[in-house]
Structure formats: C-alpha cells, structure tokens
Amino acid sequence: MSYPLSDIEQAIAGENVTMSGGDIKSIEGNDITRRNIRIDGEFNDWRDIENVIVKNEFQNIVYLRDIGEVSFGPKEATSYARLNGNRVVTLDIKKKSGGNLINAAEKIQAIVADAQENIFPKDLEVVITNDQSKMTKNMVTNLENSIIMGVLLVGRRIGVFLRCTKLHVRGNRDSIVDGNGYSHFKL
C-alpha cells in the first residue's frame, strides 16, 4: 500500500507542535509576575517520530515505522557565524524583562568557567562577546562618581557660604556666630 508524501508530512507536522496556552498571573507578596504557558508537543526522541500515526482507517493503524525508516543526516545551516575569521558556534543569551543584567552576566560567566573546567574539552576555546554588562557597570560607576562629586561640590559651596555669613542676634548682648560655629560676644 502506498501513502502520499503529503499525508506523511501532515502527520509529522501535526504531532510536532508547540503552542501557546496563554499566560498566568503569579502573585507573591507585592510582586505580580506574568508567566507564559506553553504546551510542548515537540519530539524529544527520534523514536517518537517512528511512532507517528500516518493513517488510521478501519481500526488499522499505520505507523511511520511501518512504511519507512527514520534517520538523521546533517542539519542544513540556517546561519553562519565567524570570529576572527574562524567558523564558530554561537549562543545568544538574553536577560528576562526586569532582570538584573549585571547579576545575570556574573552567573553566566560562573557557569561558563565551571563548564570549561569540568565539562568542555580542554582545547575548546570559549569567548564571550557583546557583553553589555561591562558597559552597564561603567555607567553605574560614572553615576556613582557624579553623585559623589555633586555632594562634595555642594558641601564645599555650603561651607564657603557659612564662612562668609555672620549671624547677628540682638538682645541684652550682641553675639556673632562665625562660619566655624564659634560664638563671639560683645559686652
């Protein structure tokens, strides 16, 4: 018995589907977080593909394994990456919305360092590129320095102002308070 290629294609496509299940609100204290729900129907193992039902007519189930053999070949490249003229494998990591970029980058660097030491082959070179946490750290440092300089300049300005101002209090005695906080009395 022969089966059209379109039937086989539709059977595989219908089984290998991941779809959105909407989202759910998670409330913890004052924090409200939205989480996406995903229904994962993708194949986890090549044997799952063999068990796809191609036809089910008159209680006769025809599996893909009954009409063909499942095997894998090289995957067709969809993009190319190079670093210093060499072909490389890339991994893009993006932080979650509202996440701390600097903490995320530090955790990633720790994971990579651990993997280089314990998991990866010793001759494998791992290079982190486009690390935006360095720029963010520099911006935070510049902001801290600007705040400190602002406080120092305002403090100096207030000190100069207080040294130049004398407070006169009239009463039975005349007293003068200088910029250093000392009182001088005239009798």
- Please give the share of residues in helix: 25-40%
Order of helices and strands: HEEHEEHEEHHEEE
Structural class: alpha+beta
Strand order of the largest sheet: 7-8-9
Q: What is the CATH homologous superfamily assignment of the largest domain?
A: Multidrug efflux transporter AcrB TolC docking domain, DN and DC subdomains
Low-pLDDT runs of 5+ residues are: 167-172
First-residue to last-residue Cα separation = 124 Å
- Helix tally equals 5
In total, the number of domains comes to 3
Radius of gyration (Å)? 35 Å
How is the CATH topology of the largest domain named?
Multidrug efflux transporter AcrB TolC docking domain, DN and DC subdomains
Query: Mean of residue pLDDT?
Result: 79
Shape descriptor reads: elongated
Major sheet attributes: 3 strands, antiparallel
Strand content: 25-35%
CATH class of the largest domain: Alpha Beta
Q: What is the β-strand count?
A: 9
Q: In the CATH classification, which architecture of the largest domain applies?
A: 2-Layer Sandwich
